[in-house]
UniProtKB/TrEMBL annotation:
Domain of life: Archaea
Molecular-function GO term, any one: metal ion binding
SUPFAM superfamilies: HMA, heavy metal-associated domain
Domain named HMA: residues: 4-52
Protein's UniProt name: Heavy-metal-associated domain-containing protein
Lineage: Archaea, Methanobacteriati, Methanobacteriota, Stenosarchaea group, Halobacteria
Organism of this sequence: Halobaculum gomorrense
Length: 63
């Protein structure tokens, strides 16, 4: 299953790495600060994914 999260507040590659690191335990995760999104592969509960995102970033939606 693929989940796309719209995440604001990421401004650089370091931010992307922080988000991806926080999403450990999924099959694969990528983040893109220019697109304001993270794409997650795996069967994780979307609420768990939202809770895992560091507090300095805001999850606006998941799909």
């Amino acid at each position: 299953m693929t989940t796309t999260m719209r995440i604001t507040g990421m401004t650089c590659g370091g931010c992307e790495a922080s988000v991806v690191e926080a999403l450990e335990g999924v099959d694969e995760a990528t983040a893109d600060h220019e697109a304001d999104e993270a794409v997650i592969e795996g069967d994780a509960d979307p609420l768990d994914l939202i809770a895992a995102v560091p507090g300095e970033y805001e999850v606006e939606s998941t799909a």
